[in-house]
Design a protein that fits this description.
By secondary structure, the protein is α+β, with helices and mostly antiparallel strands. It has four domains: 2-224 and 415-420, no CATH class; 258-393, 2-Layer Sandwich (Gyrase A, domain 2); 445-555, no CATH class; 566-628. α15 (535-545) packs across α16 (549-555) and α17 (566-576) packs across α19 (589-600).
Length: 632
């Protein structure tokens, strides 16, 4: 197997070709609608991925926001390229030992899925070559590019997709590796190492969606498949390993089809609507009641191989259904799953007879649609996929699914989608700029991790988490202020990611604002004002409402109140549970602890509660007479 990575990281430097903010916005100021069409690339040919997408004839609705302008709407030429974005790209090139080009030439990359208002994405090659070494293995770097991020998808229907322009134009730094990676685990490790280099610049965005990986995977005897837009680092190895298993399974099915002499006939699909007028199938019946059609094709020699698979969730029938959906139908029905879905055995037999399909050897596929053209197009896509199944694993782009599987998205794009950007002149990269970048290179992530472990005595996993979270500066700044290492490490690696996710609001941007925001709450914990268990509640309240620590403590119910004296609460719990203490003696500590914590959780540290409760319980047991002590 071979794997190559493309890591796409959003930069926190504004937008690439205008002066608008790079922050996402929920305020919508207007909208407009467009249709997009595939155009020829520099070679004079049309890219197959663009042609397939344009054939869907979708309408795209775009929402404008306060941080979008005429550049994003493609009503004004791009401005000068963002110099801060270029500086970050040059920094990565130096850290990876890449060869920087003399001039930047911006290209247009045809993209007509609606994610760009213009029908193309601007991209520029910054450097080639270089390498990164991970766990003793060296992986080559193919290229480093600067490009625009796409619009943010808001909603999707049968005929129209809605996008928001706030994300369009945010600079993306793309680092592509050579296909040197040999396992899913190694792909994970390389992606993590590149991510650490990016975060070391302190000019990248944080949070889900700010960094995305494309995985180019091929198995032995298979083909290159691109898994596009992986957002969770922990799933990379699963996507790679599953893709290899999928390709191996498709190759096994290919060999079985060849042994049988399977084939895919030419010719039109067959109208089967009259045979299914009285069907109990809700899917088919609903289409026919609305004047639609059910059409079918026969696949000689494919019988039993559309639904059979040794890899969970991967079937040739599913592959065909994904291709059919891309042509405008919601799905297909095939012979390996019939009778079923309301289609009876008698109806299945009549369909076989109408299509000339032999009972065991042959398969058939049905497509139901209110639009005859869509049904025919879907079955044409099924036939194309069946022909490919006889030859090889198709090269294609696939979307990642949350369970580690993938789904067909579109054909694999190629060189025909590229053509020059005529609105942006060439950008020279002088040697003086590169020298300035070299003088300001950040520390290597490995050096930083070793310092965290040796100077602050963090274990390797905790040091790695702080590094991955891009919290090294904040961590060391808070430690210099005298706050405990354990408390600071915990809040940065555990509490903050959870708070940001639950609040759906970004943390304060930049090291100084983040430290200024965190310090008062951490000092309140250290002073015993409330327990560290309540820290996430307090910080989440502060993030959502902009409150100070005192106000947040009152709002979440952690501020001291009359009767909150811990010693008094412990005595009240002991008194209320006197029968339990008589029955269980010192073994009553655990349930008593639960009763006390129910009243002071988040206000007092659990260790403090446990120590005081044990002391008072032991004192009470010691003062009891022998006849009152269990077992005496």
């Amino acid at each position: 197997m071979k794997v190559g990575l493309e890591v796409h990281q959003q930069l926190s430097v504004g937008k690439l070709f205008c002066s608008c903010s790079g922050e996402l916005a929920e305020e919508v100021t207007g909208e407009f609608v467009r249709r997009l069409y595939a155009t020829q690339g520099e070679t004079g040919a049309t890219d197959p991925a663009a042609r397939a997408q344009a054939s869907r004839n979708l309408r795209y609705r775009y929402q404008t926001t306060p941080n979008s302008c005429l550049v994003e709407a493609d009503e004004e030429p791009p401005h000068s390229l963002n110099p801060d974005a270029l500086a970050v790209a040059l920094t990565l090139a130096e850290m990876l030992g890449s060869e920087v080009v003399d001039q930047l030439w911006v290209m247009r990359k045809t993209v007509v899925d609606g994610s760009n208002t213009s029908g193309f994405q601007r991209t520029a090659l910054v450097a080639i070559g270089g390498k990164i070494t991970v766990k003793g293995r060296t992986v080559g770097i193919s290229s480093i590019c600067l490009e625009e991020d796409a619009c943010r998808k808001i909603g999707e229907g049968d005929a129209e997709t809605t996008y928001r322009l706030d994300r369009l134009g945010i600079p993306l730094l793309e680092i592509a590796t050579e296909p040197d990676i040999r396992s899913g685990t190694e792909a994970h490790d390389v992606a993590e190492a590149i991510g650490n280099l990016l975060r070391a610049t302190h000019r990248v965005k944080r949070g889900i969606g700010s960094i995305r990986e494309d995985l180019n995977v091929s198995a032995d005897g298979g083909s290159r498949v691109e898994i596009k837009g992986v957002q969770e680092l922990r799933l990379i190895s699963r996507y790679v390993d599953h893709e290899v298993a999928r390709q191996d399974e498709l190759l096994r099915i290919r060999d079985a089809l060849r042994e049988r002499g399977a084939r895919v006939p030419d010719g039109p699909s067959v109208d089967l609507s009259p045979l299914l007028r009285e069907t109990s199938s809700r899917l088919v019946g609903d289409v026919l009641r609305h004047g639609g059609t059910v059409r079918g094709i026969c696949l000689p020699g494919f019988g039993g191989l559309l639904g059979e698979s040794k890899v969970p969730g991967e079937r040739l029938g599913r592959e065909m259904a994904d291709h059919a959906r891309a042509r405008g139908v919601k799905g297909i029905l095939h012979s390996d799953e019939l009778p079923g879905y309301g289609v009876s055995a008698e109806e299945t037999a009549r369909i076989r007879e109408a299509l000339g399909a032999r009972p065991a050897e042959d398969a058939f596929v049905l497509a139901a649609s209110r639009d005859v053209h869509h049904a025919d197009e879907a079955l044409h896509a099924v036939a194309e996929r069946a022909r490919a199944a006889l030859q090889e694993v198709p090269e294609e782009t696939r979307d990642p699914l949350p369970d580690g599987r993938t789904r067909f998205s579109r054909p694999l794009p190629g060189r025909h989608r590229m053509y020059p950007e005529t609105d942006v002149p060439a950008i020279p990269i002088p040697g003086t700029l590169r020298e300035e970048v070299r003088r300001q290179l950040p520390e290597a992530p490995q050096v930083v991790q070793e310092r965290l472990e040796s100077t602050h005595h963090l274990n390797p996993e905790m040091a790695r988490q702080i590094l991955r979270a891009d919290m090294v500066e904040a961590f060391e700044a808070l430690i210099r202020k005298g706050l405990p290492v354990t408390l600071v490490a915990r809040v940065l690696t555990q509490d903050l990611p959870q708070i940001e996710s639950e609040a759906k609001r970004p943390l304060p941007e930049g090291n100084a604002p983040l430290v200024h925001w965190l310090e008062p709450a951490l000092r309140a914990v250290e002073a015993g004002r409330f327990a560290k268990e309540g820290l996430s509640l307090v910080l989440r309240r502060q993030l959502l409402h902009g409150e100070d620590v005192e106000t947040a403590l009152k709002a979440v119910g952690l501020a001291p109140a009359p009767g909150d004296d811990l010693a008094q609460i412990v005595e009240e719990v002991l008194e209320a549970n006197a029968p339990l203490i008589r029955d269980r003696g010192s073994s009553a500590l655990s349930p008593l602890m639960g009763d006390v914590m129910a009243r002071v959780r988040g206000k007092v540290d659990g260790r403090t509660v446990a120590a005081l409760l044990k002391e008072r319980l032991d004192r009470r047991l010691a003062s009891s007479g022998p006849e009152e002590v269990p077992g005496a």
